[in-house]
Amino acid sequence: KELNILAISGSLRNQSSNTSLMHAMIKLAHTNLKFEVYDGLNDLPHFNPDLDVEEGPVSVQNLRAQLKHSDGVLICTPEYGNGVPGVLKNALDWVVSSGEWLNKPTIVIAASPSPMGGDKAHASLLLTLNMINAQVLQEGCLTIPHITLKMNKQGVIIDSETQRALQNSLTILGEACNQIKS
Ligand code: FNR
pTM to 2 decimals? Predict the structure, then answer.
């Protein structure tokens, strides 16, 4: 069965390792997973409940529609200042009360050049996703320390253990999405 996965990178940087990792995962995935890359983080206004009116900002409508039409979500994110990148948290703030993420199978991968692997951003993101009742697949969630040693500049995963772990995460995501669809 074909499954639609919304892929979100929490980094706006052109040479982002997390964006490269997201694309590497898309290549690793089984062909029944059809990925849509979300590219709207930079277009969202700062979250303000006053703007959250019917027919609100188009960028917000788009985010919500893309989430609604996805069967599952993949997030790859860096950590800034021991936390979730503001642009990513901003996107989450826009969907806290709108409900599109409810029961949506979701995996979170945090990658960092540091030995800690972005663990604080990872944990913080899971707190928010659990609060909005996403179906966070704990076994599929990963922190990847030393990302620069595990993926080369061309975005190829050069560490076999990391590749296996990422493949396993994608399998877990696919299985959870399948269960909901069937
Ligand atoms: C960082 N970085 C970082 N890394 C980390 O593991 N924990 C942290 O708290 C921070 N904080 C932080 C703050 C600022 C201002 C910068 C510029 C960087 C390093 C970060 O992980 C690294 O730059 C990654 O390469 C960013 O991810 P992308 O853009 O490569 O996906």
Answer: 0.98
> Which residue has 């029944």 as its token pair?
32
- In 3D, which of 131, 149, 169 has the Cα closest to residue 123? 131
CA distance 166 to 31: 15
- 81: Cβ below 6 Å to ligand 1? yes
Pocket-testing residue among 16, 112, 116, 150, ligand 1, by greatest number of atoms within 8 A of Cβ? 112
CA–chain centroid gap for 112, Å, is 15
Asked if residue 10 lies in contact with residue 76, where contact means CB atoms within 8 angstroms, the answer is: yes
Kindly report, residue by residue over 129-163, the tens digit of the pLDDT: 999 999 999 999 999 999 999 999 999 999 999 99
Give the start-to-end residue ranges of the domains of the chain: 3-181
The DSSP letter of residue 134 is: -
CATH 2.115.10.20 fits 3-181, yes or no: no
